[in-house]
Amino acid sequence: MVTEVLAEVIPPTTPAIVLPTVLGQVPSTLKVEKLLQVTDEIIAHAKPSHHPEFTQKDAGSEIVAVIGDKVVANMEKLKPQITHALKNSSAVGFSTFVARVAAISDTRRHSVEDLLKFLEKGDLPIANDGSIIIYKILLRI
């Protein structure tokens, strides 16, 4: 009886089919497409591991100093200072210098890299207290 009353008040109709409206792409598909583009670019420029550009000479060429729990990378840049310490049979100044560098290596990584690059190009000696001896030659007075 109730359904008959409702059928008279609300006529039965078939619901209309609503088609989806495309407003744009889902953000996740944009990320996937970008990732695929980047991957394709990397693969296009990739070289196999047996390529002549990759040699055993490059492997293991980085020297790392470990002082306590601190690590100082790129110590191969100090080759002249290491050679000097070995020739003089005294690594006191060099080891003090490395300890001082290791103390700041965590907080000032870029400064340490710049310092090592400077020492590599300058070929400057290290004093026994770990300081760098810097000098300038005057050509005119």
Structure summary:
By secondary structure, the chain is mainly alpha-helical. It has helices spanning 2-9, 27-45, 79-87, 92-104, 109-122; strands spanning 65-67, 70-72. The protein is elongated, with a radius of gyration of 35 Å.
State mean pLDDT (0 to 100 scale). Answer: 78
The amount of helix comes to 40-55%
Counting DSSP H or I runs of 4 or more residues, the number of helices is: 5
Low-confidence stretches: none
Strand order of the largest sheet: 1-2
> Main sheet, how many strands, which sense, barrel?
2 strands, antiparallel
Q: What is the string of helix and strand elements?
A: HHEEHHH
Category from helices, strands and their pairing: mainly alpha
Question: β content, as a range?
Answer: under 5%
In angstroms, what is the radius of gyration?
A: 35 Å
The CA-CA distance between the termini, in Å, is 119 Å
Counted beta strands = 2
How does the overall form come out from the CA principal axes?
elongated
